[in-house]
Design a protein that fits this description.
Layout: E1 5-8, H1 10-14, H2 22-34, E2 40-42, H3 45-52, H4 69-81, E3 86-88, H5 98-110, E4 118-120, H6 122-126
Parallel strand pairs: 1-2, 1-3, 3-4
């Protein structure tokens, strides 16, 4: 199986430490423990800026602050231009959902980016290959 090129948005990093959402936290930790080495995984400067901009200095090292649609658009742009296979996110509202994925890929295609970008959660990557 070919290694996937995966872009992580800030929400994935955030959920490593989300004690208020233990199910997503545990899935994210399992992704890091079980799947990280199987794929080529990247973040961008946008992720680092989001983390640096949190108001809580204790969390600044690991947990991002508030999100905006602008940053979400930057994550999609980076993943599109650099031709990643997957954009991994826990952001269901703006990214990891079928409707957004379809819209993003339509716009990308209209702009000359032919590769389809999949926007999925860590759970979907954990479940890969289960039916093989």
């Amino acid at each position: 199986m070919k290694k996937l090129r995966i872009y992580l948005d800030t929400s994935v990093i955030n959920f490593l430490f989300a004690d208020d959402a233990p199910e997503k936290r545990d899935i994210t930790r399992e992704f890091f423990a079980e799947r990280l080495a199987r794929h080529d995984v990247y973040i961008s400067d946008t992720v680092l800026v989001e983390i640096a901009n949190t108001r809580d200095p204790v969390k600044r090292r690991v947990v991002p602050g508030s999100r905006s649609q602008w940053e979400d658009a930057l994550h999609v742009a980076v993943a599109t231009v650099l031709a990643f296979d997957l954009l991994l996110s826990w952001n269901f509202r703006h990214m990891a959902n079928v409707e957004r994925q379809e819209k993003i890929n339509r716009v990308n295609c209209a702009c000359g980016y032919e590769k389809q970008l999949l926007l999925v959660t860590p759970m979907e990557v954990l479940n890969e290959g289960e039916n093989e």
